[in-house]
Amino acid sequence: MTSTLTHYIGGKHIDPRGDRRGDIFNPATGEVQKQVAFATIDEIDQAVDTAKAASHEWKNSSIATRTRIMFSFRELVNKHKDDIARLLTMEHGKVFSDAQGEVQRGLEVIEYACGLAELLKGSMSENVSTDVDNYNLRQPVGVVAGITPFNFPAMVPMWMYPMAIACGNTFVLKPSERDPSVTNFCAELFTKAGLPDGVLNVIHGDKVAVDRLLEHKDVGAISFVGSTPIARYIYETGAKHGKRVQALGGAKNHMVVLPDADMDLAADAAVGAGYGSAGERCMAISVLVCVGNAADKLLPKIVERISVMKVGNGLEPASQMGPLITGAHRDKVASYVDAAEKQGAKIVVDGRGLKVAGHEGGFFLGPCLIDHVTPEMSCYTDEIFGPVLSVVRVGTYDDALALIHGHHYGNGTAIFTNDGGAARKFQHDVQIGMVGVNVPIPVPMAYYSFGGWKQSLFGDLHIYGPDGIKFYTRTKNVIARWPDPRFRGVDLGFPQNR
Question: Which residue, 154, 258, 288, 495, has fewest beta-carbon neighbours within 10 Å?
């Protein structure tokens, strides 16, 4: 019999009340390794009620207390980062070194949140009028919720709950049901760090859980990372119920390669950013935009690097790329290669027939490289979320820019060139949220903020960093004057500064 992962509410695991379950696969073998309980409406309400009950004490806790707990949590995550990475690889499939990198990037957001004493400062202006001071305060929203995707089960939740909790909020997290064990483990670590029971709660489930969080009257804000159709739904539904919402959606990230680029550097970057984590990254490079004759110089180098790539079980040290998350997703990704071939593109490297010895039941798809792709093909228009790299050939820099601007996503982009003027012009001209110059995956550091433009983001604020502090707090303005005999008496006129 398989074990069942349950919800973590009020600092402890609870026995599930409902009968619905989801399978958690080992993507390298295709076998079900455990199940996860799907929350009932009553269990979701219990999590929110628990968070609400803990909210008063937590929001009134001192900054010193919160800081000590955040530092303790940081130390525990750092101590157990390999344990987290191993759990992550077992359920997601990405190679162990990639999982370690994911945990490290999440840890950097925790470290940023440890600076809450500085981050939560307000501002003050003395004597804005005679003997009148004006100042503002940053106060927590209350109960907030996060809904996170399967591709970064450690890092993306860490973009949310450490920031929100540091700001004085309590949190209800609904992770992906495909690889949820990491989230429970990290919640346990936070409790061990001294976090009061009920401040961080984890529920598991599907659309039932999502919809209940969106409509619940006691949830003040929702953070989401996932596909664009769901991000739009989260944003519209949450806003309709009066909630503050940040919803990060999908991507189609273009990497522009000019003819003067260092082609070895560009090839290394394209392979790493296109096939790392089997392409299951919202910041993966999925389109190479080759200007002029750049493709003729670049593609042989990419093919050479693909030919020596090792695809296998993510826990095997030799593996450079692991399986996809499920068999259904693997088949969907392969269908885009099928469609591209039928639509006239050239399949330069075909990973559809890959079999990994000893793991024949695993959800593996080898790297795929498609040349002569046009903007009308589905492999270009859609977010594939797999190890498929499309090559679009254009004549000029202006053609490359127009191609990027014509796509409905605006998450990330990059340019590879040795021309500083061209690079500077690109970073100024391109209408995309995150830009890399000779850097293929321009994910901001924790003390900046992550977010795209166009249909890659719904809401006004990006995630973590300074925008995260703004999202998880509300600004309260105070104008104060202490009694002074000179200003007593009734004045029916409009207030003026004197």
Answer: 495
